[in-house]
């Protein structure tokens, strides 16, 4: 990683096995330890390749040791980013094939694509037709006003005649607003062709081999993706004038082969004139509808600001009606947007699969899968960076290098966060509109193609740009300037000051990773029983090793059910306060309160049942810990026994924390409602959720009083630790009486309770895991030692 050697190490395979190992032994060990497929193992043993990049030095050495123990010859070269070009840059003529085969488009497909593009315009044209008809009707009415006023017999009738066109004009003005105003589009920093010649040469070579005109410009931004758009709107399609935009976080995370795959996917949409026009038309129309259906514009911000500053009578008489009309317009666009999705979904998804073929053919199907996972990790990390930066701005601080912050955050995702990324790949779509297939479906299609790839360029993609660090700084400053931040230099601080990443691996994380193989989550293990049995320590560990896939699957179901329970609880709270909802958005079938109660109870029952099924595996870990403790002596035995007793008491927090998490999530969702009118209507639901959240905090404190701590300097109960940390209500229950705190204060206390319990639990578990792992090493037992990378399988960049 440029600019930071602490996260700039990679692990590379030499493509051969070590002396003393057989091919069968190595294949078996890699499959067992890293859960790799035979095809992945075959690639790793066939040639030199990068297995994992972007690691800390210690992390790279740990992975190197594990792979060598499996019999694979690997090394850890440091990745350094030299601002000067490579002395021997790769030769494009040798690296790229002479021609890239295009996907043929039959006459029937061409007709279907043309029809799809035409159908995507039907809804916008109907909308424009309504505007034109309404305008004509208004003009016609205005011509009738003199006659109506002449026939008017009263002042009230005359006022009504005049007020009708005024009201209709206002409605028409707001309805036609999307035709005359635009949402601000994020723009990148254009690159100079001479200064960044290597990247331009690469893209030009791809265009030439696909029979396309060279791109007119290349820009970089802070988004983890690649996009190709007409340079001057749809009108520039005729001359094939296009602009390629590449995200700096993506460049910092990919090698050249992966970048070629990503760029060729975008170029694939332009490989045939019909697909080019259809793709651009559908994307443009859907993004326009989505923008007005889902996003706020400058007028929304102005009205919200005026609402806060204006007298109450002005807000009720003028601003509220204006906001209501905008709300009606947004609902209209939401309906048009959904209709257009249904019309364009099939052809749009078919075009995505066909564009994927280009990236798969050039870079390989497996590389496509790894790149997709990398992009999703970067998207997840980008959201985390944005949230951290927003909090830091309240203290007058902002990160100095946003692209690098996203990459560092992606490199430091926890096992639980990586599971969330994997889940998102199945649920979320590639864009804000749902005309694209989920990435898991695209990956499945790519693996079915089983293309080996024709590119063999493993040089970091960031080396294609001159002075990568300066570009990252320029993008960061542009983002802040566009956001209205004044005097940017005065608020910039190092990324680590906000993100809090340590330059050396966290010892607690290392101990937990080694002992639990990355399978420890925020769920408190049930360790209070199951410590007795006939099995030996080695037998227990071997049993756990064989059941780790079962543990991973159960925990994934456990947290998925937890999310369902939270969503349904949120929907149930809204229905109880007679607030209309879209049931499917909350995992419900209807707006019937009784049916919502049944589904909430169903999710709760399933959640409890999964907890019971996990208890058996928890007891295996308890037995493993107890057997190691039984072999200890002196202070280690006393400390480990006290820690195990402490951790066993955390199980009493499971139910209070479950309720606290659910109601705090509901309360947070209600408080973060962007629609001010809806937020106002939700006040009874906010009050209800805040009250339940407050009750959950009280239950948490009661359980915390029975939860013991045995860490150095923290030998007390969890409630006493909460009081020492200054948590509201922990020492004086009257601070939590009804009405004492507002909803946001209650939510803040709930988050503090959750963070405190999780921190004490992780620190206690890490201390015990370290003692037990050391004792197991002294006894010479085979450790669990199944490394866990990338949400279930080690990332192998083939």
Give a summary of the structure in a few sentences.
By secondary structure, the chain is mainly α.
List the helices and strands and how they pair.
Elements: E1 9-17, H1 23-34, H2 38-44, E2 49-55, H3 57-69, E3 72-75, H4 92-95, H5 107-151, H6 155-180, E4 189-190, H7 197-209, E5 217-221, E6 226-230, E7 242-247, H8 248-253, H9 256-268, H10 273-294, H11 298-309, H12 312-363, H13 365-393, E8 398-399, H14 402-411, H15 415-427, H16 439-449, H17 468-482, E9 492-493, H18 495-499, H19 507-516, H20 537-576, H21 593-630, H22 634-649, H23 654-671, H24 676-681, H25 683-704, H26 718-724, H27 743-779
Parallel strand pairs: 5-7, 8-9
Antiparallel strand pairs: 1-2, 1-3, 4-5, 6-7
What are the key terms here?
single chain, 798 residues, 3-stranded antiparallel sheet, 27 helices, 4-stranded mixed sheet, disordered N terminus, 9 strands, mainly alpha, disordered C terminus
Task: Describe this protein's structure.
By secondary structure, the chain is mainly alpha-helical. 63% of the residues lie in helices and 5% in strands. It has 27 helices and nine strands. It has helices spanning 23-34, 38-44, 57-69, 92-95, 107-151, 155-180, 197-209, 248-253, 256-268, 273-294, 298-309, 312-363, 365-393, 402-411, 415-427, 439-449, 468-482, 495-499, 507-516, 537-576, 593-630, 634-649, 654-671, 676-681, 683-704, 718-724, 743-779; strands at 9-17, 49-55, 72-75, 189-190, 217-221, 226-230, 242-247, 398-399, 492-493. The strands form three sheets. It has a four-stranded mixed β-sheet. Strands 2-1-3 form a three-stranded antiparallel β-sheet. It has a two-stranded parallel sheet with strand order 8-9. The longest helix has 52 residues, at 312-363. The protein starts with 8 loop residues before the first strand and ends in a 19-residue tail after the last helix.
């Amino acid at each position: 990683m440029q600019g930071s050697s602490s996260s700039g190490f990679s692990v590379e395979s030499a493509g051969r096995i070590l002396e003393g190992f057989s091919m069968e032994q190595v294949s078996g060990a890699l499959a067992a330890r890293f859960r790799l497929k035979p095809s992945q193992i075959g690639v790793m043993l066939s040639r030199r390749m990068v297995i994992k990049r972007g690691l800390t030095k210690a992390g790279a050495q740990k992975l190197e040791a594990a792979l060598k123990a499996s019999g694979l010859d690997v090394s850890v070269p440091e990745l350094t980013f030299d601002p000067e070009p490579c002395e021997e840059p790769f030769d494009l003529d040798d690296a790229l094939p002479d021609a890239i085969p295009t996907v043929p488009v039959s006459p029937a497909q061409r007709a279907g694509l043309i029809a799809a593009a035409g159908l995507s315009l039907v809804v916008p044209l109907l909308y424009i037709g309504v505007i034109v008809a309404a305008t004509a009707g208004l003009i016609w009415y205005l011509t009738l006003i003199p006659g109506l006023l002449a026939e008017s017999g009263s002042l009230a009738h005359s006022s009504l005649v005049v007020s009708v066109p005024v009201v209709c004009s206002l409605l028409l003005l707001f309805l036609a607003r999307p035709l005359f105003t635009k949402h601000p589009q994020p723009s990148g920093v254009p690159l100079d062709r001479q200064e960044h010649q290597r990247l331009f040469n690469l893209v030009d070579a791809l265009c030439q081999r696909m029979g396309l005109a060279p791109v007119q410009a290349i820009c970089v931004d802070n988004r983890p993706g690649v996009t190709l758009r007409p340079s001057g709107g749809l009108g520039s399609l005729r001359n094939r004038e296009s602009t390629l935009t590449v995200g700096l976080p993506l460049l910092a995370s990919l090698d050249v082969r992966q970048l070629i795959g990503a760029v060729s996917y975008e170029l694939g949409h332009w490989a045939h004139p019909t697909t080019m026009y259809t793709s651009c038309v559908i994307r443009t129309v859907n993004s326009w509808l989505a923008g007005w259906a889902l996003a706020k514009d400058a007028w929304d911000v102005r009205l919200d600001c005026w609402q806060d500053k204006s007298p109450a009578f002005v807000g009720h008489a003028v601003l509220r009606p204006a906001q209501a009309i905008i709300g009606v317009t947004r609902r209209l666009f939401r309906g048009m947007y959904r209709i257009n999705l249904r019309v364009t979904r099939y052809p749009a998804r078919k075009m995505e699969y066909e564009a994927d073929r280009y990236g798969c053919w050039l870079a390989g199907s497996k590389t496509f899968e790894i790149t997709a996972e990398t992009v999703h990790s970067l998207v997840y990390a980008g959201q985390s960076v944005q949230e951290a930066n927003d909090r830091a701005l309240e203290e007058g601080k902002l990160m100095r290098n946003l692209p690098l912050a996203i990459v560092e955050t992606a490199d430091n995702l926890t096992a639980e966060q990586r599971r969330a990324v994997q889940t998102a790949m199945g649920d979320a779509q590639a864009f804000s509109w749902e005309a694209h297939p989920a990435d898991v479906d695209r990956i499945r299609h790519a693996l079915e193609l089983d293309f080996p790839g024709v590119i063999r360029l493993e040089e970091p993609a960031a080396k294609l740009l001159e002075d990568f660090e300066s570009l990252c700084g320029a993008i960061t400053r542009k983002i802040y300037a566009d956001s209205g931040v004044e005097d940017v230099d005065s608020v910039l601080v190092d990324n680590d000051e906000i993100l809090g990443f340590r330059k050396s691996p966290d010892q607690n994380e290392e101990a937990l990773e080694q002992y639990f193989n990355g399978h420890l989550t925020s769920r408190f293990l049930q360790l209070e029983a199951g410590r007795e049995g006939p099995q030996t320590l080695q037998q227990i560990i071997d049993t756990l090793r064989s059941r780790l896939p079962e543990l991973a699957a159960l925990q994934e179901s456990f947290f998925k059910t937890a999310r369902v329970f939270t969503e349904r609880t949120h929907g149930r709270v809204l229905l109880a306060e007679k607030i209309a909802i879209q049931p499917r958005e909350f995992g419900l079938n209807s707006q019937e309160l009784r049916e919502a109660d049944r589904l909430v109870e169903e999710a709760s029952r399933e959640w409890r049942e999964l907890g019971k099924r996990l208890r058996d595996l928890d007891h295996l870990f308890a037995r493993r810990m107890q057997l190691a403790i039984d072999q200890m002596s002196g202070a280690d035995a006393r400390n480990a026994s006290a820690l195990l007793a402490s951790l066993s008491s955390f199980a009493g927090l499971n139910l209070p924390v479950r309720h606290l998490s659910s109601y705090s999530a509901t309360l947070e969702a209600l408080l973060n409602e962007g629609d001010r009118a809806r937020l106002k209507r939700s006040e009874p639901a906010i009050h209800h959720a805040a009250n339940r959240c407050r009750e959950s905090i009280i239950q948490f404190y009661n359980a915390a009083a029975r939860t013991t701590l045995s860490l150095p300097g923290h030998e007390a109960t969890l409630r006493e630790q909460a009081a020492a940390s200054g948590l509201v209500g922990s020492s004086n229950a009257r601070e939590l009486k009804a009405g004492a705190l507002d909803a946001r204060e209650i939510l803040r206390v709930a988050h503090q309770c959750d963070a405190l319990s999780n921190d004490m639990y992780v620190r206690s578990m890490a201390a015990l895991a370290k003692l037990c792992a050391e004792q197991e090493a002294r006894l010479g037992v085979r450790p669990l030692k199944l490394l866990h990378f990338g949400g279930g399988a080690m990332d192998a960049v083939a």
